[in-house]
Amino acid sequence: MSGEAFLFTVFAAMTCFSAIAVVVSQTVVRMAFWLVISLGSTAALFFLANADFVGAAQLLIYVGGTLVLLVFGVMLTASGPYMKIGTSTGETVVAGLIGLLFLFVVFASVSGVNWRQPVTASADNVATGAVGNTLRPLGLSFLGARPESGVLPGEDAAGTGYLLPFEIVSVHLLVVLVGASYLARAKRRAVPVNQVV
Amino acid sequence: MMFAAQSIAEFFSFLGGWQYVVAAVIHAVLLVHVFALSPFAFIWLERKVSGRIQDRLGPTRVGGLFGWLQSLADGIKLVQKEDLCPQAADSMLFRSAPYVVCVASFAAFMVLPFSHGWVAVAADCGLFIILAILSLEVFGIIMAGYSSGSKWSLFGGMREAAQMVSYEIPLAICALVPIVAAGSLNLGEIGGMQRGWFGYWFLFHDPFTFVAFFVYFVVATASCKRAPFDLAEAESELVGGFHTEYSGMRWSYFFMGEYASMFAVCGIASILFLGGWNTGIGPIDDALYAARNAGADGTGSPALGYLANVLGVFVFVSKASFGVFVQVWLRWTLPRLRIDQVMTTCLKYLVPISCFLFLGAILWPLALVTTLGRTTWTSGPLGELVAEEVRENQVTRSLSAADVGGVAVRAAEGVVEKELVR
Amino acid sequence: MAADLNAYLLVGAVLFVCGVVCMATKRNGIGVLMGVELVLNGANVNFVAFSRYTDLGLDGQVFSLFVIVLAAAEAAVALAIALNFYNNHLTIDVDRANKLKG
User: Fold this and answer.
1) Per residue in C44-80, pLDDT tens?
2) pLDDT tens-digit map of B23-44
3) B299, CA 20 to 30 Å: which among A109, B86, B179, B397?
4) What is the value of ipTM here, to two decimals?
């Protein structure tokens, strides 16, 4: 077993185990804890797959940003300590069975496909040290240059590469920022506290 | 000859496929020592400095003259204490929270270079990774606060969450200001670019990086939840904040994490702004650089190159420790802010200032090109150094330096042309 | 288990299914959000795996970057909606959000 396969097995097992633990946990904060482990091990899988920038972005944006936001939401919406909104046992069993069935269907269909795997797709260049330095190629691809396939800026038929999607995403984020702060601003309660059943 | 090996993995190349495993273990063990010993030193420093500032002596008994073994005595005391878990706590989260904090601040050392080439993972986007990993620490604090089952802890955790989510923004933007000057996210390359007289440090690269250093330092102090921003543990209001319910070893894990991440952010500051492992004195730096290169390519004594790197580690650690000393000094000098003042400082002042600095750092080279005809105000070797560093690392790249430079320049020209057409 | 395309796809499938089950069974609004994050993450694993093991190249990584950014945006808006819901109903139980049933 090569080192990469060993690390992959460890992190894949951690990812899957904690994803299942997210489903099984009853309190929201435990769910958040398992979600952090799951997303963190997924970032490790990204590093293993030579996608170091994506892995770091996953850690910074997902784990450090989005999840902290979610936990903040948990604290703001909890009506008591360790609030549980449980599901009945029957529902859990049915959901588990359907989930297993669904997993079987998804994986059977996915592994049935013959993906175009070029013979030269050997990114296993651990020995040369050229692992996962995707920063420059990624940055250039945002400008429309794909040096690995010999495309320079302006020569690509599509023109600007990912520059336009990037701009759209940034405007989208700005709109989301404004919209979220508008939605979440402090308002008068619709129902007075003492009248709630 | 052991000094001749370029890396630990190469030194163990006779082990075949296991060399990377052995190298990884050695790196990890070395970094664990840095992680464990830096709190040891800084806690003693904190006690000594606070004592002097309050006109006391500080620890004097344990370990002779300056009480330098005080941290060890503290550690032994904490190990002996009972490991308590309150009844109201969510025990699994309560027990695992200190480990999350520790793992996050320990993993940050993975990409922090201590000298030329002395880094566990020479990642191309090292700065991005280190900021990402440091941002995980907050999650452990929030978990500790929430799972303790105490209102003081909960308040501490919530304050920490709000503070960290806000302060990450100016931290990242300020760290980007010298990146604009360097053109690389690889911390090793950034450190190497600042060789020569201290005028070539990125601190003095342009007025924007000069201001950005101070803003970065303030934000970094806040992101380590050090006074005057230690609202998460404000002992005058919240008893102990997020660690109110902790005792013994688990409590000390939080402090190991805190002091280690102080060292980490100061290390980042010294690499980004203060020349990293370069001494700042031109001839010495050139001599050390020559010794390292000669040692590496076999033309000179490998032991001399090794010694040059050891000296580099010493310089780097001194710079980072000075940063930690300033943070300690600030803690015992300034009063604590209120939580609304902390948030106002960040969102109303630090974020706009850092955005302005970032914009200025982008426009600065353009302004210099139109007036002076070059991109730096000194006629320094930065430009040549960039090319040189890129050439050194060329082997590990799929693209050659010329390709990258040419493509980037052409891409930039294309963007400018499009803007003009519009 | 060897690290090949199918292994990555299996991890992606597990994440996806866990996310879907989480969305379907959790009654806590924020729990449902976490399910969405798991589903998006399963998709990301697939993108990165394809970018390494097939000739998709860097496009897969760029796609997963966009997915991460959009997931952050989605979480911010959904959290704002959840807070609003809590302000109006004093609970976060999504089964109580039935005012539009008529």
Assistant:
1) 999 988 888 777 777 788 889 899 988 888 888 888 8
2) 778 888 888 888 888 888 888 8
3) B397
4) 0.87
Residue count of chain A, please give it.
197
The answer to whether residue C98 sits within a structural domain is no
- Answer whether C96 touches A (CB < 8 Å): no
- The domain of C87 spans 25-91
Instruction: Give the pLDDT band of residue A17 (cuts 50, 70, 90).
Output: very high
CB contact under 8 A, B158 and A72: yes
A6: distance to nearest CA of chain C, Å?
8
Does some domain include residue C6? no
Distance CA A22, CA C41 (A): 14
Structure tokens at B216: 């970065």
Helical packing angle, B91-107 and B126-134, nearest 10°: 160
Q: What is the pLDDT of residue A18?
A: 92
Going from the C-alpha of B145 to that of each of A15, A105, B141, the distances in angstroms are 25, 42, 6
Rounded to 10 degrees, the C-alpha dihedral A172/A176/A178/A183 comes to 160
User: Is C3 among the domain residues?
Assistant: no
Query: Which residues of chain B make contact with A143, given a CB cutoff of 8 A?
Result: 407-408, 411, 414-415
Domain-embedded: residue C8: no
Annotate B44-74 with b (16+ C-beta within 10 A) or e (fewer): bbbbbbebeeeeeebbeeeeeeebbbbbeeb
Model pLDDT, residue A49: 82
For residues B191 and B247, membership in a common domain is answered with yes
| Host domain of residue B74 | 9-80
Instruction: Collect all residues of chain A within an 8 Å Cβ-Cβ radius of residue C27.
Output: 85-87
Handedness of CA B398, A60, A31, C46 (dihedral sign): negative
Residue B70 CB contacts under 8 Å (≥ 6 apart), including other chains: B43, B44, B47, B59, B61, B62, B63
CATH number for the domain formed by residue range(s) A1-79: 1.20.120.1200
- Answer whether B158 sits within 8 Å of A75, measured CB to CB: yes
CB burial of B165-190 (b: ≥16 within 10 Å; e: otherwise) equals bbbbbbbbbbbbbbbbbbbbbbbbbb
The helix or strand, by DSSP H or E, that contains position B344, with its residue range, turns out to be: helix B339-344
Residue A42's SS3 state is helix
Q: Which stretches within B124-196 are classed as H helix? A: 126-134, 137-147, 151-182, 187-193
pLDDT digits (tens, 9 = 90+) for B372-392: 766 666 655 555 455 454 445
- Give the integer Cα–Cα distance in Å for B275 and B405: 24
With CA atoms as reference, the chain C residue closest to A181 would be C80
Chains that touch B (3 or more CB pairs under 8 A): A
Counted domains in chain C: 1
- The mean per-residue pLDDT over the stretch C80-101 comes to 77
Residue A170: closest CA among chain C residues belongs to which residue? C69
Q: Mark yes or no for CB contact A30/B92 under 8 Å.
A: yes
- Asked if B111 contacts B129 with a C-beta cutoff of 8 angstroms, the reply is yes
Say if the Cβ atoms of C79 and A142 lie within 8 Å: no
- Contact flag B128-A53 (C-beta cutoff 8 Å): yes
Gap between the Cα atoms of A178 and A73, Å rounded: 18
Written as one string, the DSSP assignment of C39-85 is: HHHHHHHHHHHHHHHSTTTTHHHHHHHHHHHHHHHHHHHHHHHHHHH
Chain B interface disruption, residue of A10, A72, A124, A136, most B CBs within 10 A:
A136
pLDDT (average), residues A8-23:
90
- Residue for token digits 């260049």? A125
